[in-house]
């Protein structure tokens, strides 16, 4: 609460000091008014004074007496003398005169004084207010101000009293001097108050100045601190920006490293480089640094490619490692990247390029610590392909001064054709870099290898060759004569040592490996004579001889040699280097007594293996702490070459046992892999416990060391084994056993890309490939193997996406929580003849199979599903001959949770004439209308069937029989029926036909895959528009004047348009949501985010995206380009945009909301000209309603209308009891027909967004006929600016489902338009293509809900409430979805997926229609050509998955418990909030259409 002002305090004190009588004076009463201020009171007193002065009496007295008194005042001294000198009577007279003169003077001066003081009070009050504002905080000042106001109040009160007194009374009072003295005293007090206030103000000002000086000093100190803090903040911001830049660059570097995935390969290279560096003796390999070819290579004066070749074991790898280190020291600015090929590790060309690119990236990062946009852009591709790696390496080379590529061991890749092809790709690319002008001066390439014919062909003409063997002999001599640890402790003289070494040098020549092995052997000699004898006679002449001696020294017992043979077989023939733990488990299973179970007691000791295997096998720790994680490798590639050529090396001198058991061959790995996977602990699928996978015995799978290797490579090792009948039976038994399911589960969880899909980018055949998973010989050597392979391929075809998901970077969050849970696969749907169907499934699934086989199918095949999902009918053309057709029809029934059974089979006979068959099955490579009609169709209840134009009805025996008069021979005014509906004896047939055929681009696909549901079905899969299409559109534009008059025509023969509002009540919910002149579709901000908008914008941010700026820029450019000159011709003036004349967007009859513009212009405004050229072809809607009769049908109603846009799969619907038919036309128009009264009316259903077109519009009447429901599938395609198209933006469209419910009039159902009572919208995301021949959506209607299902790999069904306030609806949303995902087969994306909710005690039903995989392409080849083992250019043992194209898979299904299987229903996050007052969902009548010609009668408008 604020304190009272000084004036209010003074007023209160002044009133309190007055007696009660004076408190009631009028002046006091007016002063007590709340709004009274000192200024107001002073002005009021001035007006009172002026009024008093203007009184006539006072003015007269003043006019008469004032001159007299003035004269007498001049003689005041004379009168005083006369009064004092004269005697008494005369003195009295002169005294009285003096009194009169003085009183009259005071009377006249009184009002002058009042007037003067009132004027002075004005400035005084202003000063007081200023003092109050400046020093109001001072109590002394408040006290003085209050006292000054009290004196003013006394003055005003006195003036008011004087002015309101009678003039004579005032005159008499003025006779005495004391009568004006009081007023003078008050004035004096006011002046004194003013003086004291001024003095106090000076004092306060001085104090304030002192405080201000202190405050100024404090402010300066604070500002200095703020300046320092601001500088620190700027420094911090600069540091933050710098750090942000550093973090950004580091993030880019990290992303590039992740994309390259080169870290493991480079770490392996680095370890090998360090190992080789440790093997080099000082002084060796220096000859290369002085070699002239090497010097020319470094300086660039010679060839940029240097090939160092020598026989095996001559130290080429050590020489390469020395060159790597020396080159780095010689040229500090140069970058040296390297790779060592290993004989026991195959690497693809892309892997080697990734390793080299990774080293280049590390070198560039160490120098620049920055990553360019171009480099980052190359690594943002989805696939790390060879082309992308080439581009990245080129960018890195441009950023580096000089680069040396060192590749060692190329001869290791010449062992097989696949390895050489991969190495040759890398070699060729590096040769190209060394010869291109852009990189000629900065690229040097080094190759080192053994002589090979394939290398000679590639390198001899493109490189400088150095024969290293000649120079290596001196290094070998230096190596032998050094202080060898092997000879240091021998008890022989130096002379004897020299003699032995001389002999070794003569025999070793340039072979480092042989020399080192011989030195080790000398250490094992017993005496000097033994040593000399060994050198003279026993010294092996070759490495093979030395290796054979080593194997001869192994214990000759069967157990010992059996163990050694298996160890070497595991190491030599492994597909990758094995770890010690893997070898131990494999040995334990091979040597154990129980082949079905691994006993830990049978696993060999680590210490035993460590003493047994050297020197031929090395143990590489690689920084691991667990000995079992050590990698076991052959110490040199020559050991592998020896064992491959001599697998029987351990058979010589064997004591006991079979010699076959000590054979070192690939069969050992094939045997142990198969035996390992067949263990009893894998007889059941793996399961999770506490986040870890366990086997059937409860053991943790991550402790099984050989498990992953055997699961990945079992079939590859079986390919290397010699096929036999016994092995065939073992493989067959394993595949048929439950262990095979566990193997597939293991591959899915831990084998990267085992179930991925691959292709060869260099090939143009369009094929895709899977990894081979069965032994090649097993599939091609017998029918049983081929059948098992085919069964497994059928499973992979359906579930490879789920099996691939654990290792796929594109896996969705809906699938990842369930990876590895193979019981979610629908095994029974594979059919009882498939061996995999015996595996356990989480759900009750089934397939529609007859005797385990699918029913007849083909291109002319159709299925019908009943409204409750308990019946499925399939029909297929099985024979045709000379215009006679035979169709096989199968009726399947479902009951409870049992598999489906065939209820009825029928063969339907018909003919070409009866069905008009040729109008429906025109060849696909011919020009046909873009709205090709399905040749076969069922009604929603399956009681009626259409084959071509012939209609059939199901009788009491569940057999279809023709309806009389409804065939191709009857005169029904239509050549082809597209849609039909039947109720009782009333039949409605309808079609939407193009007025003239439109040439269409053929994609070769089995149906019309549209990029957009548009006017000409072009741009299928990125197809370019042919030139004849462009000319056709130009011709259409020229001929528009001729066709336009017919396009808007409407024929309603047999009926007339009428409607009645009747007594229909308005909707309570949407009473005010009606179409208004300013209403329009919902804007993008009211719907899902714009796919072209930035992330910030989609979240509601006000920031503009780059796309928006491009749009604005492009729009400005278009506007500037389309601006007309000032001197326009008449024709140019007609080309004005309608927005310059009328607000064309307010006229809803325009089709702009439905138009999908394909022009490059940003503006959708049409031009006003004689006729607006259309870029689409008009269709004609045809509807005719008949009454069935014994003699044929009777026409009840006939209607035709031109349609601007196509509409698909939107049949007419009968009211359950009234004579009402509802049929969607196009562009939102819906016709309501009373076929008895022969009347109709049309209403338009508005789309929910701009630039939106309805793709289909489904209608459904409630069972009691009180409501009608509409489900509209909408596609929104926004025009893309030209600038965005130039930078690669592709056309997309956003999908949505708009569901609306309308109440019908109870009295005038067929005449009164329905009223909107409920609506809901479901956003469906962004699509790029859509097949309208087989839309990937199905609808299931129930009395309260609509179930909308999409054809995807997981169950995506939305339950949409049809009425507001549904108690079963979730939260406030009327759209709900399942809580948990249900995985579907991959073919569900190509099947029709139907969902039927649970009813009573029956579970929910999920039905997937049959799958047609398209026609076989000529390049796909025969199935036999794609079996495993067939050579396919570079893809050996890789087969295509397209060998099943053209086949049809049978329908499948599943029973679901809504709570148990998918957790019930929850609110959908894709439900859109629909705004009011936009007319969305309203059925509004058509407005008078704006005519640019007739309606543009314009006149000027000046504002």
From TrEMBL:
Pfam families: DUF7708 (PF24809), NPHP3_N (PF24883). Residues 1029-1137, 1151-1173, 1411-1430 are annotated as: Disordered. Gene3D superfamilies: P-loop containing nucleotide triphosphate hydrolases. Residues 187-233 form a coiled coil. Residues 283-449 form the Nephrocystin 3-like N-terminal domain. Residues 65-204 form the DUF7708 domain. Keywords: Coiled coil, Repeat. Residues 1036-1055, 1085-1099, 1151-1163 have a biased composition (Acidic residues). Residues 1109-1128, 1412-1427 have a biased composition (Basic and acidic residues). This is NACHT domain-containing protein. The lineage of its organism: Eukaryota, Fungi, Dikarya, Basidiomycota, Agaricomycotina.
């Amino acid at each position: 609460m604020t304190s009272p002002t000084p004036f209010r305090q003074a007023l209160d004190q002044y009133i309190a000091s007055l007696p009660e009588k004076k408190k009631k004076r009028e002046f006091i009463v007016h002063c007590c008014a709340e709004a009274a201020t000192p200024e107001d009171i002073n002005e009021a007193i001035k007006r009172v004074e002026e009024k008093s002065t203007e009184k006539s009496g006072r003015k007269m007295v003043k006019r008469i007496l004032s001159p007299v008194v003035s004269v007498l005042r001049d003689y005041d001294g004379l009168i005083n003398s006369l009064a004092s000198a004269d005697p008494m009577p005369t003195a009295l007279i002169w005294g009285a005169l003096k009194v009169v003169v003085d009183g009259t003077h005071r009377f006249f001066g009184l009002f002058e004084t009042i007037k003067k003081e009132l004027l002075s009070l004005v400035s005084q009050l202003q000063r007081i207010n200023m003092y109050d504002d400046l020093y109001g905080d001072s109590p002394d000042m408040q006290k003085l101000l209050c006292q000054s106001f009290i004196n003013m109040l006394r003055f005003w009160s006195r003036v008011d009293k004087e002015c309101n007194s009678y003039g004579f009374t005032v005159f008499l009072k003025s006779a005495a001097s004391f009568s004006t003295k009081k007023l003078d005293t008050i004035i004096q007090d006011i002046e004194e108050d003013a003086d004291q206030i001024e003095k106090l103000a000076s004092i306060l000002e001085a104090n304030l100045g002192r405080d201000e000086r202190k405050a100024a000093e404090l402010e300066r100190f604070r500002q200095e601190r703020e300046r320092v803090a601001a500088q620190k903040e700027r420094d911090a911001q600069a540091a933050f920006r710098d750090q942000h830049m550093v973090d950004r660059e580091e993030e880019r570097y990290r992303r590039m490293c992740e994309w390259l995935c080169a870290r493991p390969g480079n770490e392996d290279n680095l370890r090998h480089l360090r190992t080789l560096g440790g093997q080099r003796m000082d002084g060796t390999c220096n000859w290369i640094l002085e070699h002239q070819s090497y010097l020319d290579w470094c300086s660039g004066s010679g060839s940029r490619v240097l090939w160092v070749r020598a026989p095996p074991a001559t130290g080429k790898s050590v020489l390469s490692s020395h060159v790597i280190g020396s080159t780095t020291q010689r040229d500090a600015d140069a970058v040296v990247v390297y790779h060592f090929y290993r004989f026991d590790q195959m690497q693809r060309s892309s892997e080697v390029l990734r390793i080299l690119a990774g080293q280049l990236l590390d070198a560039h990062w160490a120098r620049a610590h920055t990553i360019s946009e171009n480099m980052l852009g190359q690594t943002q591709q989805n696939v790390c392909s060879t082309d992308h790696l080439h581009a990245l390496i080129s960018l890195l080379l441009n950023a580096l001064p000089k680069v040396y590529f060192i590749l060692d061991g190329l001869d290791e890749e010449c062992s097989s054709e696949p390895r050489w092809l991969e190495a040759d790709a890398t070699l060729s690319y590096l040769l190209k870099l060394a010869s291109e002008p852009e990189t000629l001066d900065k690229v040097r390439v080094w190759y080192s290898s053994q002589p090979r014919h394939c290398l000679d062909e590639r390198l001899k003409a493109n490189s400088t060759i150095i024969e290293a063997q000649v120079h290596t002999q001196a290094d070998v001599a230096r190596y032998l004569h050094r202080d060898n640890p092997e000879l240091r402790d021998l008890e022989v003289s130096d002379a004897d040592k020299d003699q032995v070494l001389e002999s070794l040098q003569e025999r070793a020549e340039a072979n480092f490996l042989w020399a080192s092995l011989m030195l080790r052997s000398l250490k094992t000699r017993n005496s000097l004579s033994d040593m000399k004898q060994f050198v003279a006679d026993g010294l092996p002449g070759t490495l093979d001889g030395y290796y054979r001696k080593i194997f001869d020294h192994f214990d000759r017992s069967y157990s010992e040699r059996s163990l050694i043979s298996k160890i070497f077989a595991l190491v030599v023939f492994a597909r990758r280097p094995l770890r010690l733990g893997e070898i131990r488990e494999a040995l334990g299973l091979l040597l154990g007594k129980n082949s079905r179970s691994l006993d830990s007691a049978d696993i060999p000791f680590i210490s035993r293996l460590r003493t047994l295997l050297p020197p031929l096998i090395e143990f590489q720790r690689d920084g691991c702490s667990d000995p079992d994680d050590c990698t076991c490798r052959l110490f040199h590639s020559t050991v592998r070459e020896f064992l491959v050529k001599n697998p029987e090396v351990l058979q010589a001198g064997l004591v006991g046992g079979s010699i076959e058991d000590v054979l070192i061959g690939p069969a050992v790995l094939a045997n142990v892999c198969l035996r390992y996977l067949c263990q009893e602990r894998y007889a059941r699928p793996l399961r999770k416990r506490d986040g870890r996978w366990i086997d059937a015995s409860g053991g943790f799978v991550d402790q099984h060391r050989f498990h992953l290797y055997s699961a990945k490579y079992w079939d590859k090792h079986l390919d290397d084994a010699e096929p036999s009948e016994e092995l065939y039976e073992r493989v067959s038994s394993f595949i048929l056993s439950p262990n095979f399911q566990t193997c597939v589960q293991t591959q899915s969880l831990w084998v990267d890309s085992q179930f991925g899909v691959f292709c060869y980018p260099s090939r143009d055949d369009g094929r895709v490939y899977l990894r081979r998973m069965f032994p090649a010989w097993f599939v091609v050597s017998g029918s049983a193997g081929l059948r098992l392979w085919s069964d497994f391929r059928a499973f992979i075809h359906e579930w490879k996406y789920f099996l691939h998901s654990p290792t796929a970077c594109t896996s969705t969050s809906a699938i990842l929580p369930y990876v590895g849970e193979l019981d979610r696969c629908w095994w029974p749907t594979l059919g009882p003849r498939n061996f995999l169907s015996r595996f356990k499934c989480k759900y009750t699934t089934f397939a529609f199979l007859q005797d385990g086989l699918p029913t007849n199918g083909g291109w002319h095949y159709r299925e019908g599903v009943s409204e409750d999902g308990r019946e499925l009918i399939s029909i297929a053309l099985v024979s045709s001959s000379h215009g006679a057709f035979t169709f096989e029809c199968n009726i399947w029934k479902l009951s409870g949770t049992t598999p489906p059974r065939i209820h009825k089979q029928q063969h339907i006979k018909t003919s070409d004439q009866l069905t008009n068959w040729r109008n429906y099955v025109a060849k696909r490579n011919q020009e046909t209308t873009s709205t090709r009609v399905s040749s076969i169709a069922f009604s929603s209840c399956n009681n009626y069937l259409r084959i071509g134009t012939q209609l059939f009805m199901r009788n009491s025996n569940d057999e279809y029989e023709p309806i009389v008069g409804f065939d191709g021979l009857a005169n029904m005014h239509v050549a082809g029926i597209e849609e039909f509906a039947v109720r009782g004896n009333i039949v409605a047939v309808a079609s939407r036909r193009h007025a003239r055929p439109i040439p269409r681009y053929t994609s070769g696909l089995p149906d019309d895959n549209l990029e957009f549901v548009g006017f000409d079905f072009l741009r299928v899969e990125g197809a370019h528009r042919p030139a004849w299409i462009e000319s056709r559109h130009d011709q259409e534009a020229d001929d528009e004047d001729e066709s336009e008059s017919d396009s808007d025509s409407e024929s309603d023969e047999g009926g007339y348009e009428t409607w009645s509002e009747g007594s229909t009540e308005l909707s309570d919910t949407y009473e005010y949501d009606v179409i208004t002149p300013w209403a329009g579709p919902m804007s993008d901000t009211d719907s899902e985010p714009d796919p072209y908008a930035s992330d910030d914008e989609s979240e509601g941010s006000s920031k503009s995206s780059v796309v928006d700026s491009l749009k604005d820029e492009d729009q400005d450019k278009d506007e500037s380009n389309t601006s007309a000159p000032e001197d326009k011709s008449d024709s140019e003036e007609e080309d004005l945009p309608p927005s310059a004349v009328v607000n064309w967007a307010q006229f809803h009859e325009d089709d702009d909301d439905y138009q999908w513009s394909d022009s490059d212009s940003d503006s959708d405004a049409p031009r006003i000209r004689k006729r607006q050229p259309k870029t689409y072809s008009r269709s004609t809607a045809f509807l005719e309603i008949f009454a069935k009769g014994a003699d044929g049908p009777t026409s009840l109603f006939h209607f035709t209308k031109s349609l601007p846009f196509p509409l698909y799969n939107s049949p007419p619907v009968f009211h359950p009891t009234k004579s009402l038919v509802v049929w969607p036309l196009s562009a939102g128009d819906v016709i309501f027909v009373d076929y008895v009264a022969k009347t109709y009316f049309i209403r338009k259903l508005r789309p929910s967004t701009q630039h939106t077109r309805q793709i289909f519009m489904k209608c459904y009447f409630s069972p009691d006929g009180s409501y009608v429901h509409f489900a509209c599938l909408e596609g929104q395609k926004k025009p893309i600016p030209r600038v965005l198209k130039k930078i690669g933006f592709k056309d997309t469209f956003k999908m949505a489902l708009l569901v609306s419910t309308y109440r019908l009039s109870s009295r005038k159902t067929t005449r009164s338009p329905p009223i909107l009572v409920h609506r809901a919208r479901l956003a469906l995301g962004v699509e790029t293509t859509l097949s309208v021949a087989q839309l990937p959506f199905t609808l299931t209607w129930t009395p309260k809900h609509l179930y909308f299902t999409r054809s995807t790999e997981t169950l995506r069904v939305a339950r949409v409430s049809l009425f507001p306030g549904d108690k079963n609806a979730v939260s406030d949303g009327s759209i709900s979805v399942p809580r948990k995902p249900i995985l579907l087969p991959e073919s569900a994306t190509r099947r029709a997926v139907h969902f039927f909710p649970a009813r009573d005690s029956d579970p929910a039903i999920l039905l997937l229609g049959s799958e047609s995989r398209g026609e076989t392409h000529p390049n796909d080849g025969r199935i036999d050509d794609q079996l495993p083992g067939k050579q396919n250019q570079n893809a050996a043992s890789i087969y295509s998955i397209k060998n099943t194209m053209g086949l049809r898979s049978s329908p499948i299904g599943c029973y679901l418990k809504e709570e148990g299987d998918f957790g019930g229903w929850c609110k959908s996050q894709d439900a859109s909030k629909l705004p009011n007052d936009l007319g969305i969902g309203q059925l509004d009548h058509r407005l008078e259409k704006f005519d640019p010609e007739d309606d543009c009668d314009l006149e000027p408008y000046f504002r």
